[in-house]
Amino acid sequence: MAKRPLNVGLIGGGGGAFIVNPHQKAIHFDGTRRVVAGALHPDPKIALAEAENWAYPIKGYTSYDDMIKAQAGLPEGERLDYALIVTPNHVHFDPAMKCVAAGIPVLCEKPLTVTLEEADRLVKTVKEKKVPFGVAHTYLGHWTSRFSRYIVRSGLLGDIRWVDSYYLQGWLASRTEDSGSMQAEWRVDPKRAGGSCCGGDIGTHALMQLRYVTGLDVKRVSAHMEVFVAGRTLDDHFTVYCELSNGGKALVRASQISIGHKNDLGIEIAGTKGTLQWRQEEPEAITILLPNQPDRVYWRGAVQGGDGFLPKDLPKDLMAEPTIPPGHPEAFHDAFARLHRCFEEDVRKYNAKQPFDCDGAKYANVQDGRTGIAFIDACLKSSHSEGAWTPMP
Ligand SMILES: NC(=O)c1ccc[n+]([C@@H]2O[C@H](COP(=O)([O-])OP(=O)(O)OC[C@H]3O[C@@H](n4cnc5c(N)ncnc54)[C@H](O)[C@@H]3O)[C@@H](O)[C@H]2O)c1
Fold first, then answer.
1. pTM for this one?
2. Domains in the chain and their CATH numbers?
3. Is the CB of 86 under 6 A from ligand 1?
4. Pick from 46, 98, 197, 386: CA 20 to 30 A from residue 375's CA?
5. How far away, in angstroms, is 181 Cα from ligand 1 center?
6. Phi-psi label, residue 249: left if phi above 0, alpha if psi -120 to 50, beta otherwise
7. What is the pLDDT of residue 323?
8. Is the pLDDT of residue 266 over 90?
9. What percent of the chain has a predicted confidence (pLDDT) above 90?
């Protein structure tokens, strides 16, 4: 029988906002989810006007407080099945806490919060309320990220010695915040971005990619958070040497002043048996480098086991993941859709009062979000002490 489409409410997204766009496409990707409501702007009048002019009919609310109050009392099927939070960083914690308290599952943008104290409170409340909670670390949604995770975690590369996880951009290489870009304005403002611009915005993606693919955690950091563009108080360049939970080492680095780099997120993982390379700007393939062998390039959709490197039997759920045939490229929107699709599975179980996973295997959860904030916290302390080794809190 056809499924009832899940009802999604947007928190933020009006007035020329950015990340709401790929999200709302991803929500509608499978036909099993739809946007039905939104509190789209901090100004109540603009919020309603934006909802009125939305590309398809949605119910507008003057604020997220109003939306949460109105929706929480409705019966299942009529109320929101989940809320998507796509506001600037300082407006994540309050709506997330209120949704969770009202029993509404949340998919929240990263970084989870602006302080570690907020992140801790959110983790505690999510645990108490037992509500599905996802954090939108987009790049985990690439099939190749899942495949890389399988390769590394199953030991095919041997013990992991070294990881270079990076996210390089060039869009803040000059004072973009003075050019009328609302996205740049709040990112360089400590009140709205938190204690870090570059690290919080994109360093957290690089950290999450490392943790997701390798299964390793960062134990200690030696960080340099630097400001290259005059007049800024927050970092626009972020370099962190890390000690990993298995004793290996990693570089987690991000830059917003690397002219020419667009969304150059990538990872290189060197183990005792081989090396894996992946870049999100070319997300269809991963490269495996083995000693004294030609490089192996594995393309999504064309992977087969038993080839002398991969075992014959590959994990069924990985191979059954809905994708399109190889050569029809999957990219950013597909990654977003995969996150929403996996989150939907947990929300449907929650609605049916069944146990749900939300264990970080298919999308980042609230604990992962908290780890991102703890990482930034440790990096700030380390950077203030000229890179002194600092444990993760
Ligand atoms: N996952 C990713 O790949 C990715 C990419 C870009 C941005 N992000 C994250 O998404 C979030 C939004 O970033 P963006 O670039 O889309 O920002 P943006 O400035 O383009 O949009 C922010 C939106 O929030 C709205 N807003 C602000 N305060 C509000 C309030 N009190 N109530 C309702 N709406 C409010 C604004 O009106 C706007 O619609 C940030 O946390 C950012 O870090 C994630």
1. 0.98
2. 6-139+336-365 (3.40.50.720), 142-215+224-325 (3.30.360.10)
3. yes
4. 98
5. 13
6. beta
7. 86
8. yes
9. 98
